[in-house]
Amino acid sequence: EILQWRFDKIFFTGSTRVGKIVYEAAAKNLIPVTLELGGKSPAIVTKNADLQVAAKRIVWGKFLNAGQTCVAPDYLLVEEDIKDRFITLLKQRIEETGYEDGAQHYVKIINDRNFNRLLRLIDSSKVVYGGNFDESTLYIGPTVMDHVIWEDAVMQEEIFGPILPVITFKKLDHALEEIQARERPLSAYLFSDNKKEKDIFIRHIPFGGGCINDTIMHLVNGNIPFGGVGNSGIGNYHGKFGFDTFSHKKAILKKAKLGAENIKLPPYSESKFKWIKKLI
């Protein structure tokens, strides 16, 4: 109903599916839009990372609000050599958070529909931590799934919940190729202390915004723009970027009554053309 009105600007944050509906409706009246959507935001951990720091910050970013944030690390890409050790660190860190059912600092899933959707994404044969749930309280505990492959159900849509799939890679280039082959995520995260790996991540992976050796925190800095790219959104905001998003830059030329007006007026000549070239 709202989309029937001729607004000057539409700003929408939500799912890609609804974003397409908004965009299509806005196009009928040529209304400019900013779409802040989502997608499957990867977190990459290489053998050159501080694994203790990475585990702490990924657990915080993934299970904040029970994973129901648009910039949560959606899935984990871990270098094969460190995978087992890193999963152990993830489990230890989750244990320390105390995210049990009823914990004051852990929340329920927003509604029945999403609760049931999330349960369908959990493959119990691949769960290495968690998988606990309570339908009466809409609680799903932090869940880690190992031996996940790209074709699994959990990799076919944005999770938006407390499920963390783990995929291993042997070479960083191969992991980045898999990311590039899919829709562009809203955020991406790299955990590494290697300069070459950082440069490759920044230069060769298209995503809205992200962090190196952290998660989510790029969103809170008002001096940098926040927004998606491609399937994860259009435009950006935060700080002055938000002001600019809702502004139209109106260009005005105020002309004096005196000036070399005759040069631009017909009849034209080679002499006028030469003067015009000099002025330009």
What does it look like?
The chain is of the alpha/beta class and 280 residues long. Helices cover 31% and strands 16% of the residues. The chain is built from eight helices and twelve strands. The chain has helices at residues 16-28, 51-63, 83-97, 112-121, 172-180, 195-204, 240-245, 270-279, and strands spanning 10-13, 33-36, 42-45, 75-79, 127-129, 133-134, 139-140, 143-145, 163-169, 187-191, 209-212, 233-234. The strands form three sheets. Strands 5-8-9-4-3-10-11 form a seven-stranded mixed sheet. Helix 2 links the parallel strand 3 (42-45) and strand 4. Helix 2 (51-63) crosses helix 3 (83-97). It is elongated and about 85 Å long. The model has no long low-confidence stretch (mean pLDDT 95).
Features:
single chain; 31% helix; 280 residues; 7-stranded mixed beta sheet; alpha/beta
Structural class: alpha/beta
Mean pLDDT: 95
Q: What best-fitting shape do the alpha-carbon axes yield?
A: elongated
- What is the N-to-C succession of helices and strands? EHEEHEHHEEEEEHEHEEHH
Structure in a nutshell:
With 280 residues, the protein is α/β, with parallel strands linked by helices. It has 8 helices and 12 strands. Helix 2 crosses helix 3.
Which helices and strands, and how do they pair?
Blueprint: E1 10-13, H1 16-28, E2 33-36, E3 42-45, H2 51-63, E4 75-79, H3 83-97, H4 112-121, E5 127-129, E6 133-134, E7 139-140, E8 143-145, E9 163-169, H5 172-180, E10 187-191, H6 195-204, E11 209-212, E12 233-234, H7 240-245, H8 270-279
Parallel strand pairs: 1-2, 3-4, 3-10, 4-9, 8-9, 10-11
Antiparallel strand pairs: 2-12, 5-8, 6-7
Helix pairs in contact: 2-3
